Amino acid sequence: MNKLLKILTEVALIIPLFCVTVLAMDVEYVGSISDGLFAPTSIDVSDDQLAVLEPFSRQITTYTIEGVLRQKINIEGDASGLARLSEYEYLFCDRYAGKIVSVNMLTGSQMNFLEGGDIHKPVDLINKNARIYILDAGSGEILISGLTGAIEIRLALVKPNGDRIGFASSFAYDRDREVFYVLDQVTSIIWIIGADGQFLGDFC
User: To pair with 197 at 20 to 30 A between CA atoms, which of 21, 62, 65, 116?
Assistant: First the structure.
Protein backbone atom coordinates (compact mmCIF):
# COMPACT_ATOMS: atom_id res chain seq x y z
CA MET A 1 0.00 0.00 0.00
CA ASN A 2 2.87 2.37 0.84
CA LYS A 3 4.45 1.62 -2.53
CA LEU A 4 1.20 2.48 -4.36
CA LEU A 5 0.84 5.70 -2.39
CA LYS A 6 4.42 6.67 -3.27
CA ILE A 7 3.79 6.11 -7.00
CA LEU A 8 0.56 8.13 -6.94
CA THR A 9 2.32 10.97 -5.11
CA GLU A 10 5.11 11.07 -7.72
CA VAL A 11 2.58 11.12 -10.57
CA ALA A 12 0.62 13.89 -8.86
CA LEU A 13 3.81 15.98 -8.67
CA ILE A 14 4.80 15.35 -12.29
CA ILE A 15 1.44 16.26 -13.92
CA PRO A 16 1.33 19.92 -12.73
CA LEU A 17 4.94 20.44 -13.86
CA PHE A 18 4.11 19.04 -17.31
CA CYS A 19 1.01 21.22 -17.60
CA VAL A 20 2.94 24.37 -16.64
CA THR A 21 5.51 23.59 -19.35
CA VAL A 22 2.85 23.16 -22.02
CA LEU A 23 0.99 26.34 -21.01
CA ALA A 24 4.22 28.33 -21.11
CA MET A 25 4.84 27.53 -24.80
CA ASP A 26 4.52 30.46 -27.20
CA VAL A 27 1.89 29.43 -29.76
CA GLU A 28 0.45 31.71 -32.43
CA TYR A 29 -2.60 30.87 -34.55
CA VAL A 30 -2.15 31.99 -38.14
CA GLY A 31 -5.14 30.44 -39.87
CA SER A 32 -6.07 27.14 -41.45
CA ILE A 33 -5.04 25.63 -44.76
CA SER A 34 -7.12 22.47 -44.36
CA ASP A 35 -9.46 22.67 -47.32
CA GLY A 36 -9.22 19.06 -48.43
CA LEU A 37 -5.60 18.85 -49.58
CA PHE A 38 -4.81 15.36 -50.86
CA ALA A 39 -1.23 14.07 -50.66
CA PRO A 40 0.55 17.37 -51.46
CA THR A 41 4.15 16.91 -52.60
CA SER A 42 5.55 20.34 -53.48
CA ILE A 43 5.26 23.85 -52.07
CA ASP A 44 6.44 27.25 -53.27
CA VAL A 45 6.60 30.29 -50.98
CA SER A 46 6.90 33.87 -52.19
CA ASP A 47 6.48 37.29 -50.55
CA ASP A 48 2.69 37.39 -50.67
CA GLN A 49 1.48 33.81 -51.03
CA LEU A 50 2.27 30.13 -50.98
CA ALA A 51 1.21 27.47 -53.46
CA VAL A 52 0.78 23.73 -53.01
CA LEU A 53 0.93 21.03 -55.69
CA GLU A 54 -1.33 18.00 -55.29
CA PRO A 55 -0.26 15.65 -58.09
CA PHE A 56 -2.70 12.83 -57.32
CA SER A 57 -5.78 15.06 -57.40
CA ARG A 58 -4.05 17.12 -60.12
CA GLN A 59 -4.56 20.51 -58.55
CA ILE A 60 -2.60 23.59 -57.53
CA THR A 61 -3.88 25.58 -54.57
CA THR A 62 -2.72 29.03 -53.50
CA TYR A 63 -3.04 30.69 -50.08
CA THR A 64 -2.14 33.97 -48.48
CA ILE A 65 0.86 33.84 -46.16
CA GLU A 66 -1.65 33.76 -43.29
CA GLY A 67 -3.17 30.55 -44.65
CA VAL A 68 -6.34 31.92 -46.29
CA LEU A 69 -7.40 30.06 -49.43
CA ARG A 70 -7.08 32.08 -52.65
CA GLN A 71 -7.38 29.77 -55.64
CA LYS A 72 -7.62 26.11 -56.54
CA ILE A 73 -7.30 25.01 -60.14
CA ASN A 74 -7.08 21.72 -62.00
CA ILE A 75 -3.99 20.78 -63.99
CA GLU A 76 -3.08 18.07 -66.48
CA GLY A 77 -0.03 15.84 -66.55
CA ASP A 78 2.16 13.83 -64.21
CA ALA A 79 3.12 16.80 -62.07
CA SER A 80 6.06 17.26 -59.70
CA GLY A 81 7.97 20.30 -58.50
CA LEU A 82 6.49 23.78 -58.31
CA ALA A 83 7.91 27.26 -58.87
CA ARG A 84 6.34 30.68 -59.31
CA LEU A 85 7.10 32.27 -62.66
CA SER A 86 5.21 35.56 -62.36
CA GLU A 87 2.35 37.09 -60.38
CA TYR A 88 -0.27 34.67 -61.71
CA GLU A 89 1.84 31.93 -63.30
CA TYR A 90 3.41 28.79 -61.88
CA LEU A 91 5.66 26.17 -63.46
CA PHE A 92 5.60 22.45 -62.78
CA CYS A 93 7.36 19.41 -64.23
CA ASP A 94 5.45 16.84 -66.27
CA ARG A 95 7.81 13.95 -65.62
CA TYR A 96 6.70 11.34 -68.11
CA ALA A 97 5.86 13.76 -70.91
CA GLY A 98 9.34 15.27 -70.46
CA LYS A 99 8.35 18.92 -70.32
CA ILE A 100 7.89 21.97 -68.11
CA VAL A 101 4.37 23.37 -68.04
CA SER A 102 3.23 26.91 -67.27
CA VAL A 103 -0.20 27.35 -65.70
CA ASN A 104 -2.11 30.62 -65.33
CA MET A 105 -3.84 30.74 -61.94
CA LEU A 106 -6.46 33.25 -63.14
CA THR A 107 -7.65 31.41 -66.24
CA GLY A 108 -6.49 27.84 -65.52
CA SER A 109 -4.90 27.66 -68.97
CA GLN A 110 -1.76 25.60 -69.46
CA MET A 111 0.99 25.92 -72.04
CA ASN A 112 4.33 24.24 -72.58
CA PHE A 113 7.20 26.31 -71.22
CA LEU A 114 9.95 23.87 -72.22
CA GLU A 115 9.82 20.55 -74.06
CA GLY A 116 11.62 18.49 -76.66
CA GLY A 117 14.91 16.63 -76.92
CA ASP A 118 16.69 18.93 -74.48
CA ILE A 119 14.78 17.56 -71.49
CA HIS A 120 14.03 13.96 -70.51
CA LYS A 121 12.48 13.38 -67.08
CA PRO A 122 12.20 16.65 -65.11
CA VAL A 123 11.34 16.12 -61.44
CA ASP A 124 11.93 19.47 -59.70
CA LEU A 125 12.55 23.12 -60.50
CA ILE A 126 13.52 26.43 -58.91
CA ASN A 127 13.07 30.03 -60.08
CA LYS A 128 15.88 32.27 -58.81
CA ASN A 129 17.43 35.45 -60.19
CA ALA A 130 15.51 35.30 -63.50
CA ARG A 131 16.79 31.77 -64.09
CA ILE A 132 14.82 28.52 -64.08
CA TYR A 133 16.84 25.63 -62.62
CA ILE A 134 15.46 22.23 -63.64
CA LEU A 135 16.47 18.90 -62.14
CA ASP A 136 16.38 16.33 -64.95
CA ALA A 137 16.46 12.82 -63.47
CA GLY A 138 16.45 11.30 -66.95
CA SER A 139 19.78 12.81 -67.98
CA GLY A 140 21.22 13.27 -64.47
CA GLU A 141 21.70 16.99 -65.03
CA ILE A 142 20.67 20.39 -63.76
CA LEU A 143 19.37 22.43 -66.69
CA ILE A 144 19.45 26.21 -66.52
CA SER A 145 16.97 28.16 -68.60
CA GLY A 146 16.08 31.79 -69.04
CA LEU A 147 12.52 33.03 -68.54
CA THR A 148 11.77 32.30 -72.19
CA GLY A 149 12.20 28.54 -71.77
CA ALA A 150 15.45 28.08 -73.70
CA ILE A 151 18.13 25.93 -72.03
CA GLU A 152 21.37 27.88 -71.72
CA ILE A 153 23.52 25.68 -69.45
CA ARG A 154 23.65 21.97 -68.58
CA LEU A 155 25.41 20.82 -65.40
CA ALA A 156 26.15 17.07 -65.33
CA LEU A 157 25.80 15.44 -61.89
CA VAL A 158 29.01 13.45 -61.92
CA LYS A 159 31.87 12.96 -59.46
CA PRO A 160 35.54 13.48 -60.46
CA ASN A 161 35.99 9.66 -60.60
CA GLY A 162 33.19 9.44 -63.17
CA ASP A 163 30.40 8.15 -60.89
CA ARG A 164 27.03 9.58 -61.88
CA ILE A 165 24.10 10.28 -59.60
CA GLY A 166 21.66 7.38 -59.22
CA PHE A 167 18.25 9.10 -59.33
CA ALA A 168 18.16 12.84 -58.71
CA SER A 169 14.75 13.27 -57.06
CA SER A 170 14.81 16.76 -55.52
CA PHE A 171 17.14 19.72 -55.06
CA ALA A 172 17.59 23.12 -53.44
CA TYR A 173 19.75 26.13 -54.27
CA ASP A 174 21.67 28.12 -51.68
CA ARG A 175 22.04 31.54 -53.27
CA ASP A 176 24.45 32.86 -50.62
CA ARG A 177 26.91 29.98 -51.06
CA GLU A 178 26.03 29.49 -54.75
CA VAL A 179 25.67 25.72 -54.41
CA PHE A 180 23.01 23.13 -55.22
CA TYR A 181 22.04 20.36 -52.81
CA VAL A 182 20.79 17.39 -54.82
CA LEU A 183 19.13 14.33 -53.29
CA ASP A 184 20.11 10.97 -54.76
CA GLN A 185 17.13 8.76 -53.98
CA VAL A 186 19.03 5.56 -54.86
CA THR A 187 21.82 6.01 -52.30
CA SER A 188 20.06 8.45 -49.90
CA ILE A 189 23.06 10.76 -50.26
CA ILE A 190 22.93 14.53 -50.75
CA TRP A 191 25.34 15.85 -53.35
CA ILE A 192 26.78 19.36 -53.16
CA ILE A 193 27.26 20.91 -56.59
CA GLY A 194 28.73 24.33 -57.32
CA ALA A 195 26.93 26.82 -59.53
CA ASP A 196 29.51 25.96 -62.20
CA GLY A 197 28.65 22.24 -61.99
CA GLN A 198 31.70 21.21 -59.96
CA PHE A 199 31.17 18.35 -57.50
CA LEU A 200 32.05 19.73 -54.04
CA GLY A 201 31.19 16.78 -51.80
CA ASP A 202 28.34 14.74 -50.37
CA PHE A 203 26.91 13.73 -47.01
CA CYS A 204 24.39 11.40 -45.29
Answer: 116
Going by DSSP bridges, is the β-strand pair 131-136/141-145 parallel, antiparallel, or unpaired?
Answer: antiparallel
Please give the helix or strand (H or E) that residue 23 lies within, else none. Answer: helix 2-23
The string over 4-31, giving b where at least 16 C-beta atoms fall within 10 Å of a residue's C-beta and e elsewhere, is: eeeeeeeeeeeeeeeeeeeeeeeeeeee
Provide the whole-model pTM: 0.80
Distance CA 81, CA 55 (A): 9
- Per-residue b/e over 107-118, b at no fewer than 16 CB within 10 Å? eeebeebbeeeb
Ordered DSSP codes for 147-197: TTS-EEEEEE-B-TTSPBPS-EEEEEEETTTTEEEEEETTTTEEEEEETTS
